[in-house]
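Weekly structure sync, notes
Attendees: PL (lead), two postdocs, one rotation student
Agenda item 3: pending single-chain targets
PL asked that the sequence for the first pending target be pasted directly into the notes so everyone works from the same version. It is reproduced below exactly as submitted, 182 residues in total.
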Amino acid sequence: MTSATLDSQLRTATYHLSAPADATTPRLARKFVTGALEATRHPDLIESALICVSDVVTNVVQHARVNGLSVDVTAYDRHVVIAVCDANAARRPYRRQAADADDEHGRGLMLVEALSHASGVSLVWDALNVIGKSVWFELREGGGLGEDEGGDEQHDENGDRLPPGRAPECAQRYGFPGPRGR
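Predicted structure, written out during the meeting:
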């Protein structure tokens, strides 16, 4: 299922995809993100977005042990926040210290971190229980940190970076509230 909303006051557009967690989903997510970024006039962000979303969605498919996932793209004037959500908070991604040259795995989250302005994992709460997670990343026009940017990041109690602006919308798509702490 896909949907789109437009918030004219904040000049944002949010696109949502719900999909099964299977081997075809990374390809579907790449097509979805491409369409959302083209529709919101962010063509310069497509290449980095495709690398990042492909890795994050593949991680969910291979490691989260869930039946489905969601991808949200929230586009602002000069940046986008992309979030991939699933309902298994117990299986959180981690970044390896270093992958050997012949390793086939272990570089994805380092790529996401290198290509994005900010990235992190937010837990999804239902009252007092953690019931999911959102792996998100922010891409900005012009790439990376600008001279007048940075230093504005907020972190949760575990030291994970919180998403800029509004929290990713995917938690609400699953029918539960978003991460706390902002």
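Discussion points:
- The longest strand covers residues 129-140.
- The beta strands are 2-7, 12-20, 68-75, 79-86, 118-126, 129-140.
Action: rotation student to compare against the earlier draft before next sync.
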